[in-house]
Every structure is written in C-alpha cells, then in structure tokens.
Model the fold of this input.
Amino acid sequence: MHDQNGHRCIICGQHKHEGIFIVSEFICDACEVEMVHTDATDAKYHFFIDQLKQIWVQKNA
Done:
C-alpha cells in the first residue's frame, strides 16, 4: 500500500519511496539488491521466495 511515507515493501515490510513493482506489489531497492546478491544456498534465499509468493497470492485472491 502507498501512503505519504512511500510504498510498503512486501519483503521487509517497511515503507520506502524507491523500488520496483512486480505485478502490483512493491519491492524496495535495498531488498531487491539483497535478493539479487543472495546465493540460493543461503537460508535467507527461502525467506525471499516465501515473501515473493505474496505476489501470486494477491493476484489470485
């Protein structure tokens, strides 16, 4: 959701102004960079996958 403080990032949950939209969901620049540089063997990789599933859930709700 968007408000005066920016858009709510689906990864970190914080409100930011800079980032990208995938379908209708916002991902802030910091999370985007961290996801791109996270190795698939890193435990945090699965966290990102779970958070990104919200895009599919929101679209099919």
